[in-house]
Amino acid sequence: MRREGWLPRVVMLAGPWLFVVMLWYAVRESGLVKSELVPSPAQVLGQFWRMLTTQRLWLDMYMSFQRVVLGVAFGIVCAVPVGFLLGWYRPVRLLVDPLINFFRALPPIALIPLVIVYFGIDEPAKVVILFYASFFAGVIVMYEGIVQINPLFIRAARTLGATDGEIFWRVVIPLAVPHMLTALRVSLGVAWATLVASELIAAQRGLGAVIQNASNYFQIDIIYMGIVCIGLIALAMDRCLRSATARLVQWQERITT
After folding, report:
1. How many whole angstroms separate alpha carbon 173 and alpha carbon 193?
2. Most buried in the list 20, 51, 127, 236, measured by CB within 10 Å?
3. Angle subtended at Cα 59 by Cα 55 and Cα 61, rounded to the nearest 5 degrees
């Protein structure tokens, strides 16, 4: 029984990745694209091992990871209270919502010249770009979640004699936890998607810098390698957050069942 339950799970986890690798090889061998422009997975893996052992690729991964964590941490710390205000107070939402959507629509890469003017070209500038991207993504998710909280829970608490403070701390905050975690996941994804743009600011180390340097010398296999590294690290962080979310909101599953 244990073997029968283990095998389908392995197939489900490995199947999509095997399909992607096979499709990758098929595109390379089909002749639709020059083979020089599409390195094989083996070439990309070889470059990963070479750079990991000889060019300190682990340091590039660490620097990018650090920048993303700092940008997302600052962004979420600011986004959660702002999202609460927008979601809980409708007049505030009507007043501020156009501004939030205006700035959210601005691509972070367009702000790089201004960020350089105000913050220079060191680490703070890179973190600011990631903060900007994650903050607005987090605010949108947060206040949409607060708006969608079922008012029946609040009415039930008032019927039982709860004060406004008790309703906020014992009803609204617990119901908002899933939305906070969702905002964190969305912000994390947006920050990784913005990483290369943030590392345009004179970055010497980082996966974005690796990709940019490789593009200058037309090293396609290294570009692929950097992209795959970004995707895998982002996937690992997202899986960790999903696991933490499942533990923190177990009560929510009991309510909905």
Report:
1. 29
2. 127
3. 110
DSSP state of 219: -
Domain ranges of the chain: 1-38, 40-256
| CA 88 – CA 149 distance, rounded (Å) | 10
Predicted confidence band of residue 180 (pLDDT cuts 50, 70, 90): confident
199 close to 209: Cβ distance less than 8 angstroms: yes
Q: CA–CA separation, 140 vs 38, rounded Å?
A: 38
| Residue 63 vs residues 69, 113, 133: alpha-carbon distances, Å | 10, 22, 18
- The average pLDDT across 208-224 equals 90
Instruction: Pick the more confident residue, 6 or 171.
Output: 171
CA-to-CA dists, residue 105 to 23, 102, 119, 137, 190, angstroms: 34, 5, 22, 10, 13
Contacting residues for 97 by C-beta, under 8 A, at least 6 apart: 86
Q: What is the reported pLDDT for 5? A: 64
pLDDT digits (tens, 9 = 90+) for 131-166: 999 999 899 888 888 888 777 887 888 888 877 777
pLDDT (tens digit per residue) in 56-103:
899 999 999 999 999 999 999 999 889 888 887 888 888 888 888 888
Task: Considering the domain delimited by 40-256, tell me its CATH architecture.
Answer: Orthogonal Bundle (1.10)
Q: Which of 142, 147, 141, 135 minimizes the C-alpha distance to 89?
A: 147
Q: Which residue has the tokens 């996966």?
A: 207
Residue 77: CB atoms within 10 Å: 12
